[in-house]
# Entry
Amino acid sequence: MIKLFCDMGADIPKNLIEKYDITVFTMAISDGDNEYILGENIDRLKVFKEMKEGVVFNTSQVTYKDYYDKFKEEVSKGNEVLYISLSSGITGTYNTAIMAKNAVLEEMDARIELIDSFNAVFGYGSMVIKSAKMIRENKSLDEILKLLNFLKKHIRYAFTVEDLKYLYRGGRLSKTKYFLGNLLNVCPILDVSKEDGTLRVVDRIRGKKNLNKKLFENVKSHIADIDVLKKQTLFVFHGDCENKALELKEFLQNELDVDDIEIYTVEAVIGCHTGPDIFAVCYLDELYGKYDKFEV
# Structure
């Protein structure tokens, strides 16, 4: 049996976690005085509300002990372990997982596979769900790894935020860029680097009127044929700005003449760094085949 793990940066809805028996490693968030677990003693909307009021939240990494204990528990049962992590360019948890894996393997023979997703939010989460579906289909771990290594190279994002202060507070934007951006009324277009998994600014736009168009232009710049976008499920994400996500979805539907676009929320583990006004499109820049369409 293959036991599947991920962490809270995948933003997988609770019903899917339960449906596919996925173990999710906890990543606590803190306001400096109190520590919270999303979904237990705080929810995303309260986090975003307090952020708007000036509260600064930070996230903690998954602990070595959590990894070690869970990995050892599963291999002791004779299971193979697959852990898909939040991008190592965003958090250091992947490296901690490697140390825990090595410690377990020093004690017993086992197969523990770790995949650095180079992704975040439900783009990362979709990798986990697709893996879970393959496990249900009795696919081998090698077959699943083949898909995952493809996805980590070809899942792309184009996203923006309308308030730069959260990226600045989270260390994703320099002080100079923050002040210049506000002064010039600039909205950044960002993605997740395929080289190191970090968030990066790839373009800028003055004002907010043409953000959907600019996001779509960025998407098109990474694909060879527009039909690639029509043959897959596209994802639109938002923090606490559903109206923006709906507008982006409608824009993409009109431009591509497709309906296969799913909307998911950015939860607080990532959202406390990006802010509540993040909205994004996530897509494959190249097709794999059977798993390009997303079904739960």
